[in-house]
Amino acid sequence: MRKMTESDLINAYAGESQAHMRYYIFANEAEKAGKPNVARLFRAIAYAEEVHATNHFKALGLLKDTAANLQTAIDGETFEVNEMYPAYHEVAKLQNEPDAQRTTHYALEAEKIHAQLYADAKREVEQGKDLDSEPIYICPVCGYTVKGQAPAKCPVCGAPAASFKKF
Q1: Which domains does the chain carry?
Q2: For the segment 83-120, what is each residue's pLDDT rounded down to a tens digit?
Q3: CA–CA gap between residue 10 and residue 144 (Å, rounded)
Q4: What's the CA gap between 40 and 38, in Å, rounded?
Q5: Of 150, 153, 155, which is closest to residue 112 (Cα–Cα)?
Q6: Where are the alpha helices (DSSP H) in 60-97?
Q7: Which of 35, 74, 78, 98 has a 20 to 30 A CA-CA distance from 117?
Q8: What average pLDDT does the chain have?
Q9: Do the beta carbons of residue 48 and residue 24 sit within 8 Å?
Q10: Phi, psi at residue 135, to the nearest 5°?
Q11: Torsion of CA 13, 16, 21, 23, to 10 degrees
Q12: Which residues contact 29 (CB under 8 A, 6 or more apart)?
């Protein structure tokens, strides 16, 4: 692929990915505001943006087999844990931005777990297995992730077990 086309597709993928998430966030807010049909519109178009992002991702040749996709996920999570979030957190502290300090701390703690879960999954896949069917619980406040059973309260932010989302 020629460099200009590749650069354009990378930028389009990033823009569509951000729009996808932004519209889901907007949908949740519209739902809370008692506007279910506005929420539905946001969710529908968020899905369209996901389709666009997926198409760009595939055209870039970035979709691989499951083991390679897991390694890409491990690499991304490890970068976030070792470089990105520690740096962002220090800048937030330096600039006395408590909301940014909180969100970068939450993300850093969750990403550590995500990297390990992906590494465990990759080992299983390389052995020709799938993962067990244990449920995965996510804290809706900070993103803390755990397999098996939600803790009585989130060890990162203190949210109660009843608030965790089960996958």
Answers
A1: 3-59 (1.20.1260.10), 66-166 (2.20.28.10)
A2: 999 999 999 999 999 999 999 999 999 999 999 999 99
A3: 29
A4: 5
A5: 155
A6: 66-79, 85-94
A7: 98
A8: 98
A9: no
A10: -70, 155
A11: 180
A12: none
